[in-house]
Design a protein that fits this description.
Length: about 260
């Protein structure tokens, strides 16, 4: 991977991370079909790219994270949300991570691309049936709400399942208001991204240092710049339709390439 390719990969991650269309899927498609990486290497690069957007979230919501650091106790609401949601994420994320690493060794790029397309369509369907938002605020969230949201977030380790899409859909289904759902989705992404970075570090550390720096800086820059703009767009656009269309196009692309 040269410098320009690393910048493009970071730009894809940073631009679509905030949209419910799975940034991991989009970067994987680029890495598999344009840079011709093997699935396991592409997966590790896709995991690592979340490091840059994680820093972007921490900068954008630095006030909230400062408050969390000042109140590292389970009765403080933001701390409690992050703690319970992160522990619950591990319930689904860890077994799926192990399964995904096994599948990435056994399957070729075309099969993996079809899997991504199918999961994009599934994400779109989940978002469609999630229902309309309610009026619950952050301080009205129950421990049950946090556990369910964390478990749902764990499925986002699968490329094609949008982390922002599935967590926001889950929160809306529990009648959390839309603005609060978006903020919570951003906040709980940080410990999730940090955890997968640590878990997959054995493979991630094989990324050349210069490439790793470019990937992180690019995804951080594009993620931070696009965040506010895309948040505004996300409030008006039915992204479940976009998600399903992307999934169908992805599967069609494989059929055409192998036809």
């Amino acid at each position: 991977m040269n410098g320009l390719e690393a910048i493009i990969a970071g730009a894809i991650q940073g631009t679509v991370e905030w949209l419910p269309i799975s940034s991991e899927a989009q970067t994987m498609l680029y890495l598999l079909n344009y840079l011709h990486m093997d699935p396991q290497t592409a997966l590790s690069y896709a995991f690592y790219l979340h490091f840059g957007t994680m820093i972007a979230v921490m900068i954008r919501f630095r006030g909230e994270f400062v408050e969390i650091l000042k109140n590292l106790r389970p009765d403080y609401k933001l701390t409690r949300i992050l703690l319970i949601a992160t522990l619950s994420t591990a319930i689904t994320a860890l077994p799926l991570y192990l399964l995904l690493k096994t599948v990435s060794l056994e399957q070729n790029a075309s099969t993996f691309t079809v899997l991504i397309g199918c999961l994009l369509i599934l994400t779109g369907v989940i978002m469609k049936v999630s229902g309309t938002p309610g009026e619950k605020e952050m301080d009205q969230m129950s421990d049950r709400d946090m556990v369910i949201t964390g478990i749902a977030q764990g499925f986002a380790i699968l490329p094609g399942v949008s982390r922002s899409g599935i967590t926001v859909a889950t929160l809306l289904a529990q009648k959390i208001n839309q603005e609060t759902a978006l903020v919570i989705s951003f906040l709980i992404s940080v410990p999730a991204a940090l955890s997968i970075f640590i878990i997959d570090f054995g493979t991630i550390r094989l990324i050349p240092l210069q490439t790793a720096v470019i990937l992180a800086v690019s995804s951080l820059f594009f993620g931070y710049v696009s965040m506010n703009v895309l948040l505004k767009v996300a409030k008006r656009t039915p992204f479940w339709i976009f998600c399903i269309i992307l999934g169908a196009v992805t599967i069609s692309f494989v059929w055409l390439m192998n036809g």
